[in-house]
Structure prediction request, 167 residues.
Amino acid sequence: MKYFSLLQTQIETQTISAHFPLEFFDELSRARTLSDLLHSTTYWINQIFESDRVSIALQKDHSSLALYAINGNQAIPLNRDIPVQNTMVGQAFKRKELAVCNNTSKEELLDCQWLAAGGLLSCMDAPLMSHTKCFGTINIAHRNKNHFSARDACIFSSLVTWIAFSN
Prediction:
């Protein structure tokens, strides 16, 4: 597993460009509720990265995160809280860094095991930050090992940072 600081990904993205559907921005700007915003975000990130699963986890208490939106594979169901300890999502949340796993079947972290059991073998988790406070993560997974590139990681991190600051 690899971790990337926000500063590190921002430096790397200076030479990377990406194109996003205008419908993505339009739909986010029309969201009336938090639920609308979360579901639109998971739908469009799934489309942009051609992933098999996108989820958003928000802090529930000091020791766990709650899933609020899922698009795609239900390997980790919406009603399952994610502990901060011993999970990749928890590590991304606690460290405030993007986490990338290229083979979930080789990881001992709980959420990686759950994803692997559900047929998802690579994933990325990015912290949702407001100034210096992390309030959750956006998580993306794919059925193939080594699916996400360094370019994907930079774009994903930048997109999640924009989403967090815009809302």
Notes: Strands lie at 2-4, 53-61, 64-72, 82-83, 98-101, 122-130, 133-142.
